[in-house]
Design a protein that fits this description.
The complex is a heterodimer of chains A (106) and B (166). Chain A is an all-alpha fold. Chain A has a single domain, classed as Helix Hairpins, CATH 1.10.287. Chain A is built from 4 helices and no strands. Chain B has 2 domains: 79 residues, NADH-ubiquinone/plastoquinone oxidoreductase chain 6, subunit NuoJ (Four Helix Bundle (Hemerythrin (Met), subunit A), Up-down Bundle); 41 residues. Chain B contains 6 helices and no strands. In chain B, helix 2 runs antiparallel to helix 3. The longest helix of chain B is centred in the middle third of the chain and has 26 residues. Classes of the chains: A mainly alpha (106), B mainly alpha (166).
Chain lengths: 106, 166
């Protein structure tokens, strides 16, 4: 496993994580269920994590992986609070369709 | 050898994430997202970040996705009740995401003229090294992350509780 930085160029990791990030953006744009939108946001966070870990290994620097841990902390807190908000919205409006949630629209 | 493993894992993660976006049933979306997370964990093992891979599986596949599944079960959304977007909107979303991809790749490709070391330190991703770094250089952000977790826990309980008097 140690020959990874000699056999795989760092560009491949950039391409892969950019592709995953854009799939996440695409999912946020086309899905209407708010829970699936939150899942696509998780996918985008994971794409960023992958790029940080790749650069951390290629530069032999632990700080990138520490950053990944903090992103995981924020993702877990965001999922908990976001799903709590969604449960409350569903209790009041009986739907999680984001097109029905336009009460704040002027 | 490494390149083959990288290509297989990368292809698997892209295919599973596309299936996650396009499948109709939200429960199947959760399952495909878990498979995507497992292939990303394989990438971490390939990158010699073993501790990160284990934490990734425990936190994402073990905690966050179970939370999503529980909410889907409680709200009883496992049927195909989601209305379809119009195909014009889908085409626009595909064009927007593709242009973002072109921009990201173009911007990041030019920025990688770093002078990378030839030899990688194989001990960077181990728990000993990461723990030392986390408790010396990053001890203040670590404590702040703990406070963030406490606030998120209190907020989630308060939000999901019925008939709370504030």
């Amino acid at each position: 496993m140690l020959d990874v930085i000699k056999t795989i160029p760092i560009e491949y990791y950039v391409y892969l994580s950019s592709l995953l990030f854009c799939i996440g953006v695409f999912g946020v744009l086309i899905r209407r269920n708010a829970i699936v939108v939150l899942m696509c946001v998780e996918l985008m966070l994971n794409a960023v994590n992958l790029m940080l870990a790749a650069f951390s290994t290629y530069l032999s620097d632990a700080q990138g992986q520490i950053m990944v841990f903090f992103i995981m902390v924020v993702a877990a807190a965001e999922a908990a609070v976001g799903l709590g908000i969604l449960v409350m919205i569903f209790r009041n409006t009986k739907t999680t369709d984001i097109y029905k949630l336009d009460k704040l629209k002027f | 050898m490494s390149l083959t493993v990288f290509l297989i894992l990368g292809l698997a993660s892209v295919i599973f994430s596309l299936l996650m976006v396009f499948t109709k049933n939200p429960v199947h979306s959760v399952i495909f997202l878990i498979l995507t997370f497992f292939s990303i964990a394989g990438q971490y093992v390939l990158l010699n970040a073993q501790f990160l891979a284990v934490v990734h599986i425990i936190v994402y596949a073990g905690a966050i996705m179970v939370l999503f599944l529980f909410v889907l079960m409680l709200l009883n959304l496992n049927t195909d009740a989601e209305p379809r977007q119009s195909s014009r909107w889908k085409l626009g979303a595909a064009i927007a995401a593709g242009m973002l991809l072109v921009t990201l790749v173009g911007a990041l490709k030019g920025g990688i003229q770093l002078n990378m070391p030839e030899e990688s330190n194989p001990y960077v991703g181990l728990a000993q090294n990461l723990g030392k770094s986390l408790f010396t250089d990053f001890v203040v952000p670590f404590e702040i992350a703990g406070i963030l977790f406490l606030a998120a826990m209190v907020g989630a309980v308060l939000l999901a509780k019925r008939d709370v008097k504030i």
